[in-house]
# Entry
Amino acid sequence: MELSQSASLRMDQRQLLTPRMIQSMEILQLPLAALEERIEQELQANPVLELRENEGEPAVEGETPREPDNEAREEFSEGEQALVVQENDGAEDFDRLEKISEYLDNEDYSGSLRNHTSSSSYDGERDKKLDALNNTAARGGNLGEHLMDQWLFVEAPPGVKKAGEAIIGAITPEGYLHTELETLQQESTKVPLLIEDLRTAVGLVQQLEPPGVGARNIRECLLLQLDAIDDDPDAAGHDLELERRLVSDHLKDLEMNRYPQIGKKLGRTIEELKVAVKRLGRLHPHPGKQIGVDEAPPVTPDAIIYRDEQTGKYEIQMTNDPCPNLYISGTYRKMLKQRGADKNGHAPIDKKTREFLSNNVRNARWLLESIEQRRGTILRVIRQVVDAQREFFDKGPEFLRPLPMIEVADRLGIHVATVSRAVSEKWIQTPRGVFPLRRFFSGGTTSAEGEDMSWDAVKEKLRVIIDNEDKLNPLNDDVIVEKLAELGLTLARRTVAKYRKILNIATARQRREF
# Structure
C-alpha cells in the first residue's frame, strides 16, 4: 500500500456568523430588563458611549426608525474600517485612556469651564453611570441569614449551638429540613455533633420565625403553625382541637375531599369541617418563602397594544426604547477626525490611541444598530400578531387562533429562528391583560364548523365548562368530552385530563362541594 499527498481545490458554501451578526442575535433575544442591564454594562465598558439625561418619548408604530449616526460612519471613511479589535491584557487600554485624559485637559473648552467654575471643580453635574450603580437595589436577605440572626440570641449549650447552625444550613428555601439528623452528624467532620444535641436543636430551630420552619414534612409544618396560633391571644374563635385532628389524622382525606367520612369519624358536621378547613387554608405550606425578596424580575412589556377609538384599529406602542437616549460622544469623534495640529498647536492622538478609540466607536455603533434592529423586528412580529389575533383582543381568550412561527417568518421574509428569538421572553400589554408574546404562537385544531382554534382557546373552553358546572355534582372527564363535542371540538378523554392538569384543575371528586 503506497501513501501519497496531493493538493486539490473545492468550492462550497458555508454560513459564517460574524461577531456583528452574533451580537445582533443576542440583542434580539434579550428581554427588556436584560437589555437595559446590557446597556449599563456597555456604558461602563465603552468610554465613547454616552446616555442622555432626558428620557426619549415612546416610539409609536409608523415612525421612521432613527438612522445610525452619520458622523459615526464618517469616522471610518478614511481607512479605519480595516482596523480589527485586538485582544490584550488591558494595560494598553489604560495607557490610551490616560493619553485621552491628557488630550481632554488641553482642549479649548476646558478653559471656559474653569471660567464658569473657578471656585470649585464640581460643576453640579451628577455622574449618570455612577448613579445607575448606586440606585441598583440590593439583594434581599435569604432564609438562612434570617434564621441565623435569630439563632445568635438563642441560649443553649455550645454543642446545641453548633448543631443548630448545621440544621439551619440544611434547611431548604421552602423552610423544610429534609436531611436526616444522622446524615448531618456524618457530614460534620470539622466539628463533631451529637445526635442528642441535634434533636434538641431541631426543637429550638422550629421555634424561630417564621412559624413552621424546620419541619420535616407538611403535617409537622402545619402543626407547628397551629402551635404558634395557640400562643397568639388573638386566636379566639379558632377550633384548634379540630384543626389539629384534621392535620394530624385526616390530611389525606382532606386532599381527596372526603368530608362525610371525616365528619362521621370525628363526630362533626360538614359545616364545622368547612370552617376549619377555611382557617387551615390561611397557613403557609412553604413558610420559608415568606422571607427574602423574590429574585424574579418584574414583567416589563416591550409593547402596548391599544384600540384607537377613532379608527377602531389596534395600534402598537413600543415601551422604554433606550436607543434614542444613547449616542456616541462628540468629543471622541473630534479626536478621531483631527489629523494635524489644531489651532492651538496641540498634536493629534497617536496611532494606538486612534485605533483604541476607533474600535470602541465601532462597537458602540454596532450596539446602537443592533438595538434599532431589535426594535424594528419585534414591532413587525407584533404587527402580525395583532392582525391575526384581532378576535382575541375583541372577545377574549376563547377566540385565540393558531399562528405558527413559520407562517409569520414567511410573511416577513425572515428566518423562523429570528421570529423565535424575537418572541423569546417578550411580553405585551393588551386590552385583555399582559401576556407573553410566545402565547400567541401555537398550533391548534379545527372545529366541526371549520373554524381554526388554538390549543389555548380549547383549554379556555374547558375551563369555562368546569367553572359553570354544578359544584354539588361536578363533571367528570367523560362528560367534559361530551360537552366539548357539543361545541364542535372532538378531543380524547386523556387529552381532556392532560389539559385539566395543565390548568391545575382538580378531579371531579376533589371539586365536589358538600
Q: What stands out?
A: The chain has 24 helices and eight strands. Residues 56-91, 96-140 have pLDDT under 50 and may be disordered. The first strand starts at residue 49 and ends at 51. Strands lie at 49-51, 303-307, 314-318, 326-328, 427-430, 433-436, 444-446, 452-454.
